[in-house]
Amino acid sequence: MLGRRSMDGKRREIVRLGHPVLRQRAEEIPRERFGTRFLRDLERDLLRTMFEDSGVGLAAPQIAAPVRAFAYYVPGEDDEDEVSPRVVFNPVLTLEGEPTELGWEGCLSIPGLRGLVSRHPRVRVAGFDSDGQPVQIDAEGFHARVIQHEHDHLDGIVFLDRMTDMQSLTFEEEWDRYGDRKDLPVEV
Ligand SMILES: [Zn+2]
Description:
By secondary structure, the chain is α+β, with helices and mostly antiparallel strands.
């Protein structure tokens, strides 16, 4: 599952809520940066850090790099197909359907907390790989949720901002103890 390239990277410190970089709009990556060591290192570091910290997604601002890039993967549990680890640069997101899919989210920059967030059921992403080759991704379900969460980080938005009902906000330990009730949709 874990490719060689992702293990070559450095584990970077994940910044937490309160660090100003998480509230800035991240910058577009200039064309001349594609195919350079800078971008390949960023790619490897994002993947390595995401795995070391057991995340399913990590945006560049979360390692204090204020550029438009995020890593993610979908482990492929329940009805979801596995999506291999990847990094998308300069992603442009198109939301499809209504934002009515309620599911649990957490964030490596907001450790220990979970909350219910409504997301669009499907998204399309147009972006680039680290060599500057165009990529297009169609995603639905949890895959679409992860992409929306990570893309928000590029605009300085965190999942707490997307919660319409703060009553569901819970610590992970309490979520494990009380949150896994049949009347709650469980996605994380
Ligand atoms: Zn996050």
